[in-house]
Design a protein that fits this description.
Rossmann fold, globular, N-(1-d-carboxylethyl)-l-norvaline Dehydrogenase, domain 2, alpha/beta, 6PGD_dom2, 3-hydroxyacyl-CoA dehydrogenase
């Protein structure tokens, strides 16, 4: 195997990730604070990428990227124009008091770009009852989130057994909360009393908002949204928790595109704090604000972005994971890569451990979507990723991926 230091390994993977975050911000796709919050709450990182840049020093990162670009010629390593500009202006990060953030006494402080209390979203549409379509792990978690937050939830599945499975799963989760002293029996009973299962979508006729959480199949979702448009009352908001499919197309299958929006929860939904609120060009401003306010009311952190492949988290995360596979293809041991990243970046797990948790088939599908959207040569899925998926080594769910599991 190629010999390289842990610092070189982590630098080779983290530098393009940081550069990509700068370009995302530079393009106006998402705000500074939302980009940072997305990676903190969506991936469990100690700090978001723009904060990390400030901590490392923008000039240090710029110089390291420039050196890599001279060596590789890879556009992903070419320092972003905004990075060059901030360095030229002397905005070098924490040590200089200003970079992407403003700093004082070693900590970030509010500045003109920071959201204020006056910016807090409000519910512009009344939300009393929530509908959820789906009975899988994600759907069940979303049902639990809303019921625990005090909302009546109507959830729709294909069979009574599927519906019973959702209730049983939530009851089990609530029992664990009771064991840890976070809930009592009365609280559990109250949550379960808010659940209504149904095998017919017509049960959603009077809900105020629907969250779709079915399989990632565009045609299935298009058919569902057309049906929800027929069934749901005027003014009901239709949301999808898709992580990769175009929300604009889902909106186009309805007569109410202004009421269609993305509400991308992260798995497990009951635990993960992040929700990416994804607007299309047709989403009404009051619908966007209502969904962001609702996200806060159920105890989650909302970040805003537009409808394009990967949104914030996946667009930043999966090229980094793909780069890790390519580094392994070049001869670096994958265990060394995992350990180097954990030791030098503070990430909760290494890239190969994470790939196996996500599912290598899921990772490949997302990476293909990113390449199709951005046409960036460096986003071409790694050959080894294609290979492990073809071999059925999908990760923890098949007991074998990049690592093996008993």
């Amino acid at each position: 195997m190629t010999q390289t230091t842990p610092e070189q390994i982590s630098s080779a993977l983290v530098l393009p990730y940081l550069n990509h975050a700068v370009r995302m911000y530079e393009a106006g796709y998402a705000s500074r604070d939302d980009i940072d919050a997305a990676m903190r709450f969506g991936c469990g990182y100690a700090a978001g990428p723009l904060t990390v840049l400030d901590e490392l020093g923008l000039d240090v990162v710029r110089d390291a990227l420039a050196a890599r670009f001279a060596e590789t010629g890879d556009n992903l390593h070419k320092p972003a124009d905004l990075l060059e500009r901030l360095v030229a202006e002397g905005r070098l990060g924490r040590a200089a008091g200003r970079g992407f953030h403003t700093w004082a006494d070693g900590a970030t402080v509010a500045d003109a770009e920071s959201p204020s209390a006056d910016d807090a979203p409000a519910l512009r549409h009344e939300i009393r009852t929530v509908g959820v379509v789906g009975t899988g792990t994600m759907a069940s978690g979303i049902v639990q989130v809303f019921a625990q937050a005090g909302y009546d939830v109507v959830f729709v599945g294909r069979s009574a057994d599927k519906l019973d499975g959702v209730v049983a799963g939530i009851a089990k989760a609530l029992d664990k909360a009771i064991e840890k002293g976070r809930l009592d029996d009365a609280g559990k009973a109250a949550v379960l009393a808010r659940l209504t299962g149904a095998t017919q979508r017509e049960a959603l006729a009077e809900v105020d908002i629907v969250v779709e959480a079915i399989a990632e199949d565009l045609q299935l979702k298009l058919d569902l949204f057309a049906d929800l448009d027929r069934i749901c009352k005027p003014g009901a908001i239709l949301t999808t928790t898709t992580s990769s499919l175009p929300i604009t197309e889902l909106a186009s299958s309805t007569s109410r595109p202004e009421f269609v929006i993305g509400m991308h929860f992260f798995n497990p939904a009951a635990v993960m704090k992040l929700v990416e609120v994804v607007t299309t060009t047709l989403t009404a401003a009051e619908v966007d604000e209502t969904v962001r306010a609702l996200t806060a009311k159920v105890g989650k952190v909302a970040v805003s972005c537009g409808d394009r492949a990967g949104f914030i988290v996946n667009a930043l995360l999966f090229p980094y994971l793909n780069d890790a596979i390519k580094l392994h293809e070049a001869g670096v041991d994958l265990v060394e890569i995992d350990e180097a990243v954990k030791a030098n970046t503070g990430h909760p797990m290494g890239p190969f451990a994470l790939l196996d948790v996500v599912g290598n088939d899921v990772s490949l599908a997302i990476q293909k979507e990113l390449f199709a959207e951005f046409k960036e040569p460096g986003f071409v899925p790694a050959a080894l990723l294609e290979q492990v998926v073809a071999e059925g080594r999908l990760g923890r769910k098949t007991k074998a991926g990049f690592h093996s599991y008993a």
